[in-house]
Task: inverse folding
């Protein structure tokens, strides 16, 4: 395992890092960052990267989904641990980016997951309100 010390929120911390397919991955305190050469750093915090929806939980890297801590219909808080995955011989906690309701679990425990794959669909309060507004317009 490779480690690096970096400053996060004003504190010096030790983080795990790995290079996969030309991308640098850094993981610390439940956060994962991806850096692609010749591009700006893309934060993939709390187990999501470039989400298509505000609350969806994405796999921050390829690995195995070890545990799912939520069920469809369950209400989650922002930064709540919703799943745990293993990658690069380490365990990663995946947290919700926003408060909302779990709409769908797309993978099962023990499944292999791909980079950026949507694992859990979470509808945020703003999305629920927008859906209601759209439905009433028809």
Result:
């Amino acid at each position: 395992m490779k480690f690096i010390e970096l400053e996060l929120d004003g504190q010096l911390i030790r983080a795990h890092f790995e290079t996969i397919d030309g991308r640098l991955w850094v993981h610390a305190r439940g956060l994962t960052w991806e850096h692609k050469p010749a591009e700006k750093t893309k934060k993939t915090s709390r187990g999501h990267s470039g989400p298509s929806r505000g609350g969806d939980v994405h796999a921050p890297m390829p690995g195995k989904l070890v545990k799912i801590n939520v069920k469809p219909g369950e209400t989650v808080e922002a930064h709540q641990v919703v799943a745990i995955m293993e990658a690069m011989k380490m365990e990663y906690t995946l947290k919700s980016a926003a408060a909302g309701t779990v709409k769908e679990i797309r993978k099962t425990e023990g499944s292999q997951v791909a980079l950026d794959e949507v694992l859990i669909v979470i509808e945020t309060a703003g999305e629920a309100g927008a859906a209601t507004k759209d439905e009433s317009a028809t």
Notes: The CA atoms of residues 31 and 45 lie 5 Å apart. The longest strand covers residues 11-20.
